[in-house]
Each structure stands twice: as C-alpha cells, then as structure tokens.
C-alpha cells in the first residue's frame, strides 16, 4: 500500500530526547517516516539552540517540520498566574487554552487546503482543539484523525485534587479536573481513533467516557541504546530519581523523596545518596538539593545511561500520574533495579515482586529501598528478569508497526487502495 500523508500536531519538535513524551514521539516518528510522508506542525521550541538542533534532527529522519513563530507560554512568573486567573472564564482547561494558538491552526488550515493530508495525528489530547479550530466542526467530522493520549489527563487532575492540601488550590484544581473530563469526553469520542499508552488507560477511557474507538500502543525503549553496563560497578546505596523536573507529578515525587522517604533511608543507611537527574529543575529545587546532605542534582544531562549504570536502584515515588513510565523501561533495559509505588508502575505489563519492587504508596518506599540496599543481589536478579520482559514486550520497532496499523485502519483500506489505483505512488510534499 502507498505511503500515507500524515500531519502531526504537537507542542514543539520533540528533541532533544529529555522527557518521556519526547522520547516516545521521536522514536515512533523516526521509524514511521521511512514508510509515510510525515509533516509535523508545531510551535517553536523556547530554547534557540534546542530549536536548531530539533529541526536538524527531524530533517535527518525525513520528517518535514512546519514550525510557527510562537512558543507555548511559560508556567512561571506573574503572567502565568494572570493566565490561570483568566482561565476561570474559559470552558477549556488551561493546558488546552494555552496550547491552542491561531498561528498553529492557520498552518494546519493551509496544509488541509493544499490537499496534503490523508490523516491528522494529534500528538497530545489538547491538540484536538487546534485541529477543531483549523477545520471547523464540519471539517473535523469529515476528517480522519487520531488522538495520542499520553495520559488520561483528567485522571492526573483528579489525583492532583486528592494530593493538594491548600483549600484554594484544591478548588482551582478541581475545576481543571472537571474541564478536562468534558474536553476528553468530546475529543476521544470525536476522533477516528484514540490511542492509549496502556491497557489500563484504554479501559479507563471506555469506563469513564464510553470510548469505543480506542486502541493501545504502549510506551517503549530503544533496547539497542539502553543496555546493561556489565563493566561498571553499582553502588547499592546510591538511589536515582530520573524524570523531567518541570512536570508537576515528578516534582511532587521529588518532594516526597526529600521530605520523608530519603531522610528515613539515611536514618538506617547513613552513607545512602540520592541523585536527582532531569531537565529544567526549578530554582527552589536547586537550592534545596545543594543544602541537603547526600543529595546531588544533575540538570539537563545529555545521557542518563551513566547514572542508570552506577546506581543501586531507580526510585519512582509517584502518587500523581497516568499512562506509563518510560524511565522504568529504560532502567530495566539496563538491568537497573526499580523500586516504585503502585501509581508509578501502573500501565506496564510487569509483575511486582518478580520484575521490580512495588509498594502500595510512598509511605512504604523507605523500607523497600533500605531492604534493596542491604540485599543488592536479590534486586539484581529481579532486574534481570525485568529486562527479559522489557526486551520481549517494549522494543520501539514492533510498537511502530502497531502505530502504522492504527494509521492505516484510521484512513481506511478503501481510501488507500482507491488512490493507489487512480494516481500511483505519491510524491513527497515540498
């Protein structure tokens, strides 16, 4: 069958690969660009050097990039709080309203008018609104389009409500939760197909929103890149936290580590250390890490593998989240032991007690970490079993095949074969 012309709507060019979402998007598109004519329409990356590197990387994998001269507003400073207040008057969640720009909608509308799209792919649920703005309700109903739901966002917002102690913040977060429920109910039902990253999320979509057009393409890992470092010695007492440090669920997990989990570990293992590795840490975290004995912060590192290779275990103390954690897959691919909460490990086809350590919540993590420090051989055996499972289930190659099939089903076999008979092979746009 002929290549499809797929237009991907996204926040920015997902490069460098410094977050789970970027890793997933880049790895899947890099593989599918060999089979289809892929165009990414997005906002400009805020960092100028990063933007240049991203455009070069996408050119290298054969993906056309249409980048509008607008960046998504920052989540800090006085302007951020003014936008939060203004969002009280909007029916859209804050994340949807701030990502839906006239410039990006105009670029999508222009591409549609040129007849260069077989399938629209919203690489995050909020970008369904951009597509709606570009095509209008009638055009959207006639289009074939896919929503990639990296998370069920309303689940994350519900967990924010459960974790928030400040009554004013809880009131605001509850409003965002309800707005996201309404938005997701519309977007997931209206899309030709909604792609979940885990069976758990797909089941939640069916139960909460009545979605019948969902499918699953799990998160994955580059198993050729993330491999065990057999010649490097691990420090059993070195605990690693890995993740984007500008994402609220990760910051909540870091706070749990610093406030309760790691102090309890140090009380029993005085030589224990904690390495926090991730991009864009806020200033308060930099200051706190510098002032806390045993804690080291490594910001915006180019390669996380040296940290995975030398730590005793990866700690995933999440109580807020959705989807599934790529960091767990990366850790197990390198045979790094994992200690996680139930929320941190959800969405992955891994067996607690066999492939990784899972505690019901963060309150049991300190004891689990101490037990792992004292019995490193048991953790190492567990991590090897987890690695076998990851190699079998989570390599990006088969996952790209699965998304390829999703795209072709969404377009429909009849459309593909008709155009193939009528026009022959298509020509790469531009």
Structural features, described:
- The structure is a single chain.
- With 430 residues, the chain is an alpha/beta fold.
- It folds into 2 domains: 5-220 and 395-423, 3-Layer(aba) Sandwich (Rossmann fold); 238-393, Rossmann fold.
- It has helices spanning 20-32, 48-60, 77-86, 94-99, 102-113, 127-142, 153-163, 167-190, 199-209, 248-268, 283-291, 305-310, 326-333, 342-345, 365-374, 376-393, 396-411, 413-423, and strands spanning 5-10, 37-43, 64-68, 119-122, 145-149, 193-196, 214-216, 238-242, 273-278, 295-299, 313-316, 338-341, 357-359.
- It has a 7-stranded parallel beta sheet, sandwiched between helices.
- Helix 1 packs across helix 17 (396-411), helix 5 packs parallel to helix 6 and helix 7 runs antiparallel to helix 8 (167-190).
- The longest helix has 24 residues, at 167-190.
- It is globular.
- The model is unreliable at 413-430 (pLDDT under 50).
